[in-house]
Amino acid sequence: MTDQAEPCIRLAREDDFAALWPIVRDVIRAGDTYALDPGLTRETVRDLWMHQPRATYVAERDGEVLGTYTLKTNQAGGGAHVCNCGYMVGEAARGQGIARAMCLHSQDEARAMGYLAMQFNFVVETNRGAIALWQSLGFETVGRLPRAFRHPQAGLVDARVMFKWLAPET
What we know:
The protein has 170 residues and is of the alpha+beta class.
Protein backbone atom coordinates (compact mmCIF):
# COMPACT_ATOMS: atom_id res chain seq x y z
CA MET A 1 0.00 0.00 0.00
CA THR A 2 1.25 3.47 -0.79
CA ASP A 3 1.23 6.50 1.50
CA GLN A 4 -1.52 8.22 -0.48
CA ALA A 5 -4.41 9.93 1.29
CA GLU A 6 -7.49 7.94 2.19
CA PRO A 7 -10.08 8.05 -0.58
CA CYS A 8 -13.27 10.03 -0.22
CA ILE A 9 -16.17 7.58 -0.36
CA ARG A 10 -19.60 8.96 -1.20
CA LEU A 11 -22.91 7.98 -2.73
CA ALA A 12 -22.68 7.65 -6.48
CA ARG A 13 -24.56 10.10 -8.65
CA GLU A 14 -26.00 9.21 -12.02
CA ASP A 15 -23.31 11.26 -13.76
CA ASP A 16 -20.61 9.15 -12.05
CA PHE A 17 -21.43 6.23 -14.32
CA ALA A 18 -19.16 7.53 -17.08
CA ALA A 19 -16.18 7.12 -14.70
CA LEU A 20 -17.49 3.86 -13.20
CA TRP A 21 -18.19 2.14 -16.49
CA PRO A 22 -14.54 1.40 -17.43
CA ILE A 23 -13.86 -0.05 -13.95
CA VAL A 24 -16.96 -2.24 -13.86
CA ARG A 25 -16.66 -3.21 -17.53
CA ASP A 26 -13.04 -4.32 -17.17
CA VAL A 27 -13.70 -6.37 -14.02
CA ILE A 28 -16.71 -8.08 -15.60
CA ARG A 29 -14.94 -8.73 -18.91
CA ALA A 30 -11.92 -10.26 -17.15
CA GLY A 31 -14.34 -12.97 -16.02
CA ASP A 32 -12.16 -14.09 -13.11
CA THR A 33 -13.92 -12.69 -10.02
CA TYR A 34 -17.60 -11.98 -10.74
CA ALA A 35 -20.21 -14.47 -11.92
CA LEU A 36 -21.57 -12.05 -14.50
CA ASP A 37 -21.82 -12.41 -18.25
CA PRO A 38 -18.72 -10.69 -19.69
CA GLY A 39 -20.82 -9.52 -22.64
CA LEU A 40 -23.25 -7.38 -20.63
CA THR A 41 -24.04 -4.10 -22.34
CA ARG A 42 -23.31 -0.70 -20.87
CA GLU A 43 -27.02 -0.06 -20.25
CA THR A 44 -27.51 -3.43 -18.55
CA VAL A 45 -24.49 -2.76 -16.33
CA ARG A 46 -25.80 0.74 -15.54
CA ASP A 47 -29.06 -0.79 -14.31
CA LEU A 48 -27.29 -3.61 -12.44
CA TRP A 49 -24.76 -1.36 -10.71
CA MET A 50 -26.55 1.97 -10.34
CA HIS A 51 -30.27 1.21 -10.03
CA GLN A 52 -30.82 -2.28 -8.61
CA PRO A 53 -28.78 -2.00 -5.37
CA ARG A 54 -30.07 -0.16 -2.34
CA ALA A 55 -27.07 2.18 -2.69
CA THR A 56 -24.00 2.58 -4.89
CA TYR A 57 -20.84 4.38 -3.77
CA VAL A 58 -17.69 5.69 -5.37
CA ALA A 59 -14.22 6.00 -3.89
CA GLU A 60 -12.32 8.95 -5.27
CA ARG A 61 -9.16 10.90 -4.65
CA ASP A 62 -8.58 14.36 -6.08
CA GLY A 63 -11.77 13.99 -8.12
CA GLU A 64 -10.65 10.74 -9.78
CA VAL A 65 -12.91 7.72 -9.31
CA LEU A 66 -10.75 4.81 -8.14
CA GLY A 67 -13.35 2.25 -7.16
CA THR A 68 -16.98 1.56 -6.47
CA TYR A 69 -19.21 -0.66 -4.42
CA THR A 70 -22.85 -1.57 -4.15
CA LEU A 71 -24.86 -2.39 -1.05
CA LYS A 72 -28.10 -4.32 -1.18
CA THR A 73 -30.33 -6.58 0.89
CA ASN A 74 -29.09 -10.14 0.50
CA GLN A 75 -32.47 -11.87 0.86
CA ALA A 76 -36.06 -10.73 1.34
CA GLY A 77 -38.33 -11.39 4.29
CA GLY A 78 -36.67 -13.24 7.14
CA GLY A 79 -33.22 -12.64 5.65
CA ALA A 80 -33.61 -8.90 5.11
CA HIS A 81 -31.37 -8.05 8.07
CA VAL A 82 -28.34 -9.32 6.10
CA CYS A 83 -26.81 -7.21 3.35
CA ASN A 84 -24.51 -8.01 0.48
CA CYS A 85 -21.86 -5.83 -1.13
CA GLY A 86 -19.82 -5.98 -4.32
CA TYR A 87 -16.57 -4.05 -4.67
CA MET A 88 -14.54 -3.11 -7.73
CA VAL A 89 -11.29 -1.16 -7.93
CA GLY A 90 -9.79 0.26 -11.10
CA GLU A 91 -6.62 -1.50 -12.22
CA ALA A 92 -4.39 1.56 -11.73
CA ALA A 93 -5.63 2.00 -8.13
CA ARG A 94 -5.15 -1.58 -6.94
CA GLY A 95 -2.84 -2.13 -4.00
CA GLN A 96 -3.60 1.31 -2.53
CA GLY A 97 -6.06 0.21 0.17
CA ILE A 98 -9.14 1.25 -1.79
CA ALA A 99 -11.00 -2.06 -1.33
CA ARG A 100 -10.18 -2.06 2.40
CA ALA A 101 -11.47 1.51 2.77
CA MET A 102 -14.64 0.66 0.83
CA CYS A 103 -15.30 -2.47 2.88
CA LEU A 104 -14.89 -0.59 6.16
CA HIS A 105 -17.14 2.19 4.83
CA SER A 106 -19.74 -0.33 3.68
CA GLN A 107 -19.93 -1.88 7.13
CA ASP A 108 -20.64 1.52 8.68
CA GLU A 109 -23.24 2.29 6.00
CA ALA A 110 -24.86 -1.13 6.47
CA ARG A 111 -25.14 -0.60 10.22
CA ALA A 112 -26.64 2.87 9.64
CA MET A 113 -29.23 1.29 7.31
CA GLY A 114 -30.17 -1.21 10.01
CA TYR A 115 -28.44 -4.32 8.71
CA LEU A 116 -27.17 -6.75 11.35
CA ALA A 117 -24.80 -8.78 9.15
CA MET A 118 -22.97 -8.77 5.83
CA GLN A 119 -22.61 -11.77 3.55
CA PHE A 120 -20.53 -12.27 0.43
CA ASN A 121 -22.32 -14.99 -1.54
CA PHE A 122 -19.71 -15.93 -4.11
CA VAL A 123 -16.03 -15.19 -3.43
CA VAL A 124 -14.04 -17.01 -6.09
CA GLU A 125 -11.33 -19.20 -4.54
CA THR A 126 -8.64 -17.91 -6.89
CA ASN A 127 -9.29 -14.33 -5.72
CA ARG A 128 -6.71 -14.73 -2.94
CA GLY A 129 -6.29 -10.98 -2.35
CA ALA A 130 -10.00 -10.50 -1.66
CA ILE A 131 -10.17 -13.58 0.58
CA ALA A 132 -7.20 -12.38 2.65
CA LEU A 133 -8.65 -8.87 2.89
CA TRP A 134 -12.11 -10.05 3.93
CA GLN A 135 -10.59 -12.37 6.53
CA SER A 136 -8.44 -9.55 7.91
CA LEU A 137 -11.63 -7.50 8.34
CA GLY A 138 -13.36 -10.25 10.33
CA PHE A 139 -15.27 -12.17 7.67
CA GLU A 140 -15.41 -15.93 8.09
CA THR A 141 -15.83 -18.56 5.43
CA VAL A 142 -19.12 -20.25 6.35
CA GLY A 143 -19.51 -22.39 3.26
CA ARG A 144 -17.91 -23.55 0.05
CA LEU A 145 -19.54 -24.15 -3.29
CA PRO A 146 -17.48 -26.87 -5.01
CA ARG A 147 -16.44 -26.08 -8.59
CA ALA A 148 -19.15 -23.40 -8.76
CA PHE A 149 -17.17 -20.91 -10.87
CA ARG A 150 -15.70 -21.42 -14.34
CA HIS A 151 -12.47 -19.41 -14.19
CA PRO A 152 -11.06 -18.46 -17.61
CA GLN A 153 -7.58 -19.79 -16.75
CA ALA A 154 -7.98 -22.13 -13.76
CA GLY A 155 -11.10 -23.96 -14.93
CA LEU A 156 -13.70 -25.01 -12.39
CA VAL A 157 -12.88 -23.55 -8.97
CA ASP A 158 -14.71 -23.30 -5.65
CA ALA A 159 -16.52 -20.23 -4.42
CA ARG A 160 -16.79 -19.24 -0.77
CA VAL A 161 -19.68 -17.82 1.19
CA MET A 162 -18.22 -15.32 3.67
CA PHE A 163 -20.09 -13.74 6.56
CA LYS A 164 -19.65 -11.14 9.29
CA TRP A 165 -22.01 -10.20 12.10
CA LEU A 166 -22.16 -6.40 12.23
CA ALA A 167 -24.40 -5.79 15.21
CA PRO A 168 -22.91 -5.53 18.69
CA GLU A 169 -23.12 -8.79 20.61
CA THR A 170 -25.62 -8.49 23.44
